[in-house]
Amino acid sequence: MRNTAKFTAAVLATGALTLGLTACGSGNSASSHDYSGPLVVAASPTPHAEILNFVKDKLAKKAGLDLQVKEFTDYITPNTATEDGSVDANYFQNQPYLDDFNNKRGTHIVPVVTVHLEPLGLYSHKVKKADALKSGATIAVPNDAVNEARALKLLAANGLITLKPGAGNEATPQDIAKNPKNLKFKEVEAAQTPRSLDDVDAAVVNGNYAISAGLKPAKQALVLESATNNPYANFLAVKKGNEKDPRVKKLAKLLVSPEVKKFIEDKYQGSVIPSF
Fold first, then answer.
1. pTM of this prediction?
2. Which residue of 7, 129, 163, 238 shows the fewest CB atoms closer than 10 Å?
3. How confident is the model at residue 8 (pLDDT cuts 50, 70, 90)?
């Protein structure tokens, strides 16, 4: 039986407060961390928690790992909870997002093992092809810096816009050099992009939120991110200093096992792609 606890940013807002109170004294050392007991991992519900629960149900016991999964519906609390020790690790993010988060919030989260890619996609309830978007169409994009830039890069890669030279991982609509369709952009929280589809002409949606909303990226996306040389693969992460936690090492090994690869390929049918 699964022992998965679900949390939201509102419920665990105290985690962020705890971080603010303890960060000054904690530095980036994890030398006092207790490595006994279950390994508690924060994860987005889909596909991260689903993958972890497969490991928990099918692989962990044999490997001698007591794994607990806590689901979070936002992209902030998993890192603050990992930083303040409320959880031992997290599994939900990519390197550009983590770099931006650590830089802006002073956290010390580091990747352990890369597991999968969720291709970012453009979806619409109003048109069936990207080139069918009318002049002046409104596109919803995630409002966090990294995912907004990623969304704009997706549109640029498919000829809908042209970005200025040098536009990087913090690109915004102000970095658009050419916009032949005069597209307008509505910035919304990443988790809300699927819900915005009834209110806009199209939306760029992160893979996990697309799957959670019942969308099928491999089949329904008007355009989809290429998996080739993609820097946005998702990984297991811990607070710096906990990389050698024997429980983390066990989980890392299981997450890149043939059994997990088959599970991802069979369950997600190309909407989630193993990165190992």
1. 0.77
2. 129
3. very low
Phi, psi for residue 233 in degrees, rounded to 5 = -65, 150
- CA 74/CA 206 separation, integer angstroms: 12
pLDDT digit string (tens) for 253-275? 999 999 999 999 999 998 999 99
C-alpha–C-alpha distance, residues 43 and 78, integer Å: 7
User: What secondary structure, in 3-state letters, does the chain show?
Assistant: CCCEEEECCCCCHHHHHHHHHHHHHHCCCCCCCCCCCCEEEEECHHHHHHHHHHHHHHCHHHHCCCEEEEEECCCCHHHHHHHHCCCCEEEEECHHHHHHHHHHHCCCEEEEEEEEECCCEEECCCCCCHHHCCCCCEEEEECCHHHHHHHHHHHHHCCCCEECCCCCCCCCHHHEEECCCCCEEEEECHHHCCHHHHCCCEEEECHHHHHHCCCCHHHHCCEECCCCCCCCCEEEEEECCCCCCHHHHHHHHHHCCHHHHHHHHHHHCCCCEECC
What pLDDT, on a 0 to 100 scale, did the predictor assign at position 33?
Answer: 65
